[in-house]
Amino acid sequence: MEKSKRIEMLLWSIALPGFGQLLNGKILKGIILISLEFLINIQSHLNEIIISSFHGQIDWTINQTNYQWLMFYPCVYIFGMWDAYKDAGGGATPYSVLPFAFGAFFATGGIIYSRDVLGPVWLGIAGLIVGIGIGLILKTFLGKVR
Predict the structure, then answer these.
(1) Hey, where are the domains in the chain?
(2) Partner of 29 for a Cys bridge, out of 21, 59, 81, 99, CB 3.0 to 4.6 A?
């Protein structure tokens, strides 16, 4: 598929995991990802903690967060992005999964340590950015070594 189609699927998956799969014709996979998104979102209180984080209420955010559920969110969210992108023809170059996978790992790590600093939203996002950066560096390095 053309590059604009791959980017479109990635962007729809950023909006809501599962949308890219639906547009790619992977209906069951899309429904499963959307269902997981809603389940994890509700159980972890994600919308509430996003709003309170943006208002600077970090202590309240930490107290409202169900960490047992929220720790699943980065992996489901980023897998949905990767899967839609890949199904649309992206990710054909070696190691192209690394920025996605490391982003998910580091975002989850950010959530784990967020009780001490910044809260789950901001430290999760910081972990995501660091993970994507490390993944891009590794992808570039491993691509050259190969």
Answers:
(1) 3-145
(2) 21
